[in-house]
Design brief:
Elements: H1 8-15, E1 21-29, E2 34-37, E3 46-50, E4 55-62, E5 68-72, E6 75-79
Antiparallel strand pairs: 1-4, 2-3, 2-6, 4-5, 5-6
């Protein structure tokens, strides 16, 4: 394929790393406010937030970025490991 044949979605797919996770099951408490995102890095869309001292049930940790995987509104979401 030459560049003119590649669609924007294909470019985005090429730019997005494949994330892998280590499963865990830990309850944590937010040390400060934190954004909840749909990808395990700051490029992900913000889908919510935690306030200081909010309880967070962590279900995994991203091997590439170190971000935590959580269940938020019945879907996988992610929060920085500085939580």
């Amino acid at each position: 394929k030459n560049k003119s044949d590649i669609t924007n979605s294909e470019l985005e797919a090429e730019a997005s790393p494949n994330y892998t996770f280590t499963d865990m099951s830990v309850t944590m408490y937010a040390k400060s406010s934190a954004n909840i995102r749909n990808l395990p890095d700051t490029t992900g869309e913000k889908v919510g937030s935690f306030k200081k001292a909010d309880e967070v049930s962590v279900i995994g940790k991203c091997n590439e970025t170190g971000w935590y995987k959580i269940l938020f509104n019945d879907t996988d979401a992610y929060v920085s490991d500085t939580l």
